[in-house]
Amino acid sequence: MKRTANAPRFTKAGMLVCFLKGSLGLFAVSILCNLFMTFLLVLIPQLIGFTVDCVIGTEEVSSAYEVFVRLFGGLEVLKEKIWLIALVVVALSLVTAFFRYGNNFFTQHANQIMLKRMRDMLFSHLQRLPLAWHHMHNTGDVIQRCTSDVDAISNFVSGQLVTLLRIVIMIALSLTLMYLTDVRLALITTAFLPAVVGYSTVFFARLLPQYQKCDEEEGVLSTIAQENFTGVRVVRAFGREREERDKFETQNVHYTGQWVRVMRESALFWTTSDLLTALQLLFILIFGTVFCVNGSLSAGDLIVFISYNTLLVGPMNMLGRVISNMSRAGIALGRIAEIMNAKEEVYGKREPLHGDIVFDHVTFAYEDGKPVLSDVSFTVKEGTMLGILGGTGSGKSTIAYLLGGLYPLTSGTITIGGKDISELSPATVRGAVGFVLQEGFLFSRTIGENIAIAAPEAEEAEIRRAAHLACVDEHIEAFPEGYATEVGERGVTLSGGQKQRVSIARTLMRKTPVLIFDDSLSAVDSETDARIRARLGEHLKGVTKLIISHRVTTVMGAEQLIVLEEGRIAEQGTHEELMKRGGIYRTIYEMQMAVPEDLKEELHG
Fold first, then answer.
1. Above 60 in pLDDT, residue 202?
2. At 298, is the secondary structure helix, strand, or coil?
3. pLDDT reported for residue 217
4. Which of 455, 523, 447 lies closest to 478 in space, CA to CA?
5. Coil, strand or helix: which one is 544?
6. Which of helix, strand or coil describes residue 239?
7. How many Å apart are CA 139 and CA 146, to the nearest integer?
8. Burial of residue 183, with CB atoms counted within 10 A of its CB: 0-12 exposed, 13-18 middle, 19 or more buried
9. In the list 178, 233, 431, 454, which could disulfide-bond 350, CB 3.0-4.6 Å?
10. Among candidate residues 534, 572, 577, the one with its CA nearest the CA of residue 553
11. Total Cβ atoms within 10 A of residue 277
12. Quick one: DSSP state of residue 156?
């Protein structure tokens, strides 16, 4: 079975439609509200123009208003009770406000449903991506894509896309009614339309790369902050607060400066746009006044025309911005599509897996890097223990990651019970291989919950049993809340040794046929190390164990030992065989045995 599979290849439009599933009905209702609102907005100026010309003035009532006039008892009644028209205008305004509320409510409701779907899809997909993908991408950048880019898409759909529809309808209705009111003034307005829309479109298209640069700068800033918060203990321990603050402030200056440039140019756009709008209105007023004086245009029609022009100006200015923001949303969709189109792991069904472990000429290198392991071959008999010794960067932990199927091999094969793990599902491999890593990462939950993560349905007695085997039960019971003690983010309230032992207890809950201890006792003293090994030795009979450690005393009891140097096996054999050989292993052994015990604890504990 393949370990990864192609996720559905999302196009930008296809992904947007996928995100919109479940909210299209609400968006449709908001669009209907938008249509009614726009219709009422263009109706009110007509009523005002009728009042000026026919009720206040002496113009003849056109056939379009005959029904309205008869509804109120005739023109004379309206002249005597002009406040009735004011009430109609107020009523129309209230109905317009109602539809505006409906538009906003249904748009935001639909938007929240879409946002939830986007977040759920992204998080679920990220959980299924291979570990190699996560190592190739900065956490801060991924978080930025899942927050800022998601917000950019949300703002576009709920704001710009709905606005675009309203703009198109408003421009179409306003221009149509302008031409019906006075063709001459409408031609003047139309002459300015390409200039305003064209300037807006070109301006925001030119501004788009700067918006993209802002997104990139924000991603870098998020990465710096995330690394600093994660490594806060190291920062404090080495007194690097000032350097880290300076690093953050420098990037913050770049980010802020980029936004200031964007805002400065945006301010220039609106100023220039206002000048074009004012020039357009000036021409309309000049020619409109002339037409009124010579009797070819009524005062009411001029007021109506100016009202429509006012309704038209905003959409004209916004049209270019919306078109540009479509491109900006397209960039955000593209960045999210990079995540959504990444190959997922096919987790598959868990099947029984046990037997001898065989590394056959295994070579591994991270993406476009120097090989971390080169031509590594060894066999671990089922139920026995392999000790792995080596310096920093020798490839010890990489063996653990490869055996757990966390990375694909560059070349060679790894088999368990004669089955090539690259052809097995991750569920099968990880169901058979348990990890205890050096870091001892804990979630921000209680100690009991952290131990039971691998077996959520476990009884309290099982949790306590695992804690006893890891020699951490006494420490837990010393806390006032016992197993209900909250450990804080990343287990910050526990010591390094306590975290490692809780991690051991957590892994023991899985009862896997293969266990890997990756320097998982580095933070405990030698006495506790020996106690844990003694308890585990009895409990883990029949389990295949790989012990990675910097301490010879931790691995020397293994049935087989390998010594790694620069990604290759330098020595291989039992403790006695390697001591007789007088090579690297013996040198390390003699050096460690010569170090006083209290100094060992200071160095390693």
1. yes
2. coil
3. 81
4. 447
5. strand
6. coil
7. 11
8. exposed
9. 431
10. 534
11. 19
12. I
Verdict on whether the full-model pTM lies above 0.90: no
The answer to whether residue 311 scores a pLDDT higher than 80 is: no
Could you tell me how many residues make up the chain?
A: 605
Percent of the chain with pLDDT over 70: 88
Radius of gyration for the chain, computed over Cα atoms and rounded to the nearest angstrom: 36
Any idea what DSSP says for residue 486?
B
Strands 357-365 and 371-380: antiparallel
What does the alpha-carbon distance between residue 223 and residue 143 come to, in Å, rounded to a whole number? Answer: 9
Domain boundaries, the chain: 21-127, 133-345, 357-604
Q: Average pLDDT of 227-236?
A: 69
Give the Cα separation of 567 and 542 in Å (integer). Answer: 29
Query: Residue 568 — φ and ψ, nearest 5°?
Result: -120, 155
Rounded CA gap, 467 and 452, in Å? 11
DSSP conformational letter for 446: B
Specify whether the CB–CB gap between 343 and 130 falls below 8 A.
Answer: yes
Q: Which of 428, 312, 446, 430 is nearest to 41 (CA)?
A: 312
- The fold of the 133-345 domain, in CATH, is ABC transporter transmembrane region fold (1.20.1560)
Using the 8-state DSSP alphabet, how is residue 57 labeled?
A: S
CB neighbour class for 352 (10 Å; exposed up to 12, middle 13-18, buried from 19): exposed
The candidate with the shortest Cα–Cα distance to 583, out of 567, 559, 564, is: 564
Q: Long-range contacts made by residues 118-122, C-beta under 8 angstroms, separation at least 24?
A: 118/19, 118/150, 118/153, 118/154, 118/336, 119/146, 119/150, 121/18, 121/19, 121/340, 122/146, 122/150, 122/336, 122/339, 122/340
- Integer angstrom CA distances of residue 155 from 14, 148, 219, 262, 591: 18, 10, 19, 18, 64
Residue 588 token pair: 């390390």
Q: Which residue has the tokens 């001591």?
A: 579
Beta bridge partners of 561: 387, 573
Among residues 52, 85, 50, 44, the alpha carbon closest in space to that of 65 is found at 50
* Structure-block tokens of residue 334: 């593209």
Confidence at 324, pLDDT banded by 50, 70, 90: low
Structure tokens at 593: 């045995």
- Rounded distance, CA 497 to CA 503, Å? 10
Token pair of 332 as six digits = 């955000």
